[in-house]
Design a protein that fits this description.
Strand content: 15-25%
Largest sheet: 6 strands, mixed
Number of strands: 14
Radius of gyration: 52 Å
Shape: globular
Mean pLDDT: 76
Amino acid sequence: YGVYCTRSMTGIHEIGHNLGLAHSGAGTKAYGDGSCHMGYGYSDRRMCFNGAKIWQLGWYSNRHAIVDPLSSTWEGNLIGIVDYAQALDGHYVVVQIPASNIGGSDDYYVSFNRRTGFNSDTMLGGNQLMIHRRKKGTGHAQSWLEALYEGQKKLDRIVITSAIIDVELVDIQYVDSTMVARIKITGQTQPTSPPTISFSPTSSPSYQPSHNPSVSPTTHNPSIVPSPVPTYPDLPSAPPSISAISPRGYTFVPHLNKELAAADVAPILMGMYGDPHAARVLLDNAELAPSFGPGGGLKALLDPKSIHGKAEQLTN
């Protein structure tokens, strides 16, 4: 380590480790907090530890305050550690917002980094309000710079899963030679699950059809049975063979034994034999009753006398 071993800042840093202190980081750098000896130091400087480390060590403990911003707003005055000897009633060195009050896994520490006296060489946040965080408790744990009130900054918001905490810098004033930062800390809980939104209409919509008095309602007559939709038989590609000759001299076509109207069967027979052929369909329930069962049926016949004559279509 060469020359670093001869510097007092290196010695204080290592003594801090012996006291149980871990490093002080900022951003992504584990040694990035220049307001604390547990950060990175490259020369001899007059400075001290940050608010999280001071709380862990128990220094200035009679000027510590623990707040619960989810229960009530807290307003108070912060002074730097260099003004501890001149502290008045109501002056605090470090304010802790513990995880036990707001949830989460980290404790938060608010302090005022007065740059004077034995802290006159602080490398970061001189005369500014600062917020640090670390794992809850007082054991060995890395601290991180959470917020730095630079320039005109007056408010910082700590957002965690269970709560939102606002730390407001109200003003900075001198009381004699002591610089006093007045702060206000407020908080609100965050919902643990998204709210359920439901819509309840004030009235149920209903459809009211308009009434037309000129239209009479349809009455149901159980005695009326609708006619079945006719179905046509599969037709052969050639004329059917003659299987029976009726007493009247007509040829019976057995594959047309369907309950079809005569006017429907005639075109079918015409299509089967073509224009040169004649088709004649007769409805004779009495003659077909024995063959088609009770109630009779349709008889499709071909007239052999007219087979080569002009096509003829009869209905009923």
